[in-house]
Structures are given as structure tokens and as C-alpha cells.
Amino acid sequence: MVQVIKKYRHLYNKLTNFELQQDNDSDKLISTDDILGDLAYKKRPRLFLDFYSEKGVNKALVKYGLFKELRKRGFKDFITVFDTKDPFQHKFRAYHIKKSPDHLLCELYVRKKTFTVKPTFETDIAGETLTLIVIEWLTLQNPMVQFKPNRARLPGQKYPGLGIGRKVLKIFINMCVRLKTDGLLNIPEHYHNAEFYGRSFKYFNPQIEGYFRAIQRDLCHLLGLYNLTWAIEWGCLIETITGDYWKWFPDEQILPVSDVMKKHFNSHNYKKQVKQSSESVKFAIDEEKFKELMAKHKKEKI
Q1: For the chain, which terminal residue's Cβ has fewer other Cβ atoms within 10 angstroms, N or C?
Q2: Smallest Cα–Cα separation from 265: which of 187, 195, 184, 192?
Q3: What span, in angstroms and rounded, lies between the C-alpha atoms of 37 and 32?
Q4: For the chain, what are the domain ranges?
Q5: Distances (CA, A) of 176 to 25, 51, 290
Q6: Digit-coded pLDDT (tens) for 229-249
Q7: Residue 51: helix, strand or coil by DSSP?
């Protein structure tokens, strides 16, 4: 397994499984009733990701300093809400002051997924069974501030971000280590999401990773993140060899944690396919279409 992030190693070691699984109403993992045999008759809340209690998650958020970071941004009186009724998708929300959409700071939909690798491309881990923590939805937003010219709205955003994404990602890595999973998985809905995750994640499919790197190679330095994200969102991306317009390609990005998962991304097979894929395409932007749509976009904001 990957090492726990160095900065958080002492915190990881201080948070015991006992603390992370404590009942909300008790300091005991197993009650007297449980010992006497009443467990079958006592309905207990489902643990978050089948491991963490609500009390345990809140304790971890305090110890990792997330609430402290939020207080620095002017928030207080935090309300955390857990929903584990659906065994296939657990939800977590954090609000400040009151439980309402305009006070929402964080919204997370997450699950664990176990699957056998049966890809349509060559890989050294075909046939392996892997377990991943899947981030199906993650919003980190600051409803107390407005967008500014130097911090303009990106596709899918209702409010500006909180600026704690890197810290949250490191905590997720520690979760992977504690739960002995092979990595983190997400499917970026927009290009800027892929850019954020792409510093630590790679597309599981080497062909998609090659396409993503080709976009970065050909366009990032010309347009910057804001313009490039909107250009792709509006269908202005052109593959110049064929002349075809390309839509954004949502696909599985993975941050590898286990040795098996790392084997896939570090293999000669994977790297060769990424290189071949990136060299097979060249991207440009339909500048006329983009300028027209951007002008319309700016008018709508006025």
C-alpha cells in the first residue's frame, strides 16, 4: 500500500479504528445489550462506507483541521448530515448555521466498488479483482462569496470553491489506506474537474489518458483553464487531423493506492498506449464559434 501522506501521518496514527467507529450515543463499540444477545433485535445505523460512524467522521474532520480551515473563511456552527440508507451510495453534507441549500458547504456521494478487470485494451492486471472508493459527486463551495473576474464561474459551479480540495483529497487517500482499497475513482463531468484530479489521477483507459494529455499539450498554454473549459463545454473542440468536433469524454480516472493498481499505470504497456493515443490526435478550437458564444455568455452575466 501507498504510504500515508507524510503531513497527516501522525494524525492518521492517532485516529484509531475504535474512535472512527464509535456510536454517536456511546463510547462503546459493543453495548451491554449486544453482549447479552440483543444485537439481532436492535436496529443500528449503517456505517459510512461500512466502516465509519457519524461520530467517527466528525472526530476525523476536527483532527484533520477541516473545521478549523472553514472557520478561517468565516463559517461557524457546522451541521453534518449522513445518509447511508442506500447501501450502494452513501451521502454526506456539511452546512453552516442552518440546513438549507444556500448554506451548503460540502456535498459528497460515495461508495465502494469491487470489480474484476476485463478491459478492452492491453493491461498487465487483467483478471485482477480490485476494490475502489468511488467519488460519484463532490461539491466544495463557498456560498458567502460571489464570483469575480479573477475567479469566474466554471461549468457546473453555483458558488466559488472553498480552496480546500487538496486537503480533502489527501484525507481520501488516507481513507483508502485504512480501508485497504486499491485506490480512488472519479469520473470528471467537465474538463476543469479532470484538470484538478489529473495532477494525482490518471485515466484507467490509456487511450482516454492520451486524448486528455493531447488537449493539455495543444491548448492549455493558448487558452488557460477558464477559456478552455468553456470552449470544450460549448462544443468548440476540433480534432484537426479528421476535422471532427469532439465532445467531452467522461471516463474513469483513478488515483492508485495499492501496488496492483500502481502496476497498471507504471507498466510499459500503459505508457506505450498513452503515447500512441496522444500522438494520434491534434486539437484546436473553433475560434469564431468560441468568441461568439463567449460574447453571448458575458452578456447573460450582465
Answers
A1: C
A2: 184
A3: 9
A4: 6-301
A5: 27, 12, 41
A6: 999 999 999 999 999 999 999
A7: coil
Q: Has residue 194 got a pLDDT over 80?
A: yes
With residue 298 as reference, give the H or E element that holds it.
helix 287-301
pLDDT at residue 3 in the model: 47
Helix (H) or strand (E) holding 183: strand 183-186
Query: Roughly what angle, to the nearest 10 degrees, separates helices 206-215 and 268-279?
Result: 50
**Element (DSSP H or E) covering residue 263:** helix 259-266
The one-letter amino acid at 141:
Q
Q: Report CA-CA distances (Å) from 3 to 167, 174, 244.
A: 16, 9, 44
119-162 tens-digit pLDDT: 888 898 989 999 999 999 999 999 998 888 767 889 999 999 99
Q: Are strands 283-285 and 237-239 parallel, antiparallel or unpaired?
A: antiparallel
Which one-letter amino acid corresponds to residue 206? P
Q: With contact defined as beta carbons under 8 Å apart, do 149 and 160 qualify? A: no
Containing 74, the helix (H) or strand (E) segment is none
**Residue 157 grid coordinates:** 459551479
Cα gap 194→202, rounded to integer Å: 9
pTM, full prediction: 0.85
Among 210, 217, 212, 206, CA closest to 193? 212
| CA nearest neighbour of 124 among 276, 272, 273, 267 | 267
3-state secondary structure of 80: strand
d(CA 135, CA 137) in angstroms, rounded, equals 6
Asked whether the beta carbons of 225 and 217 are under 8 A apart, the reply is no
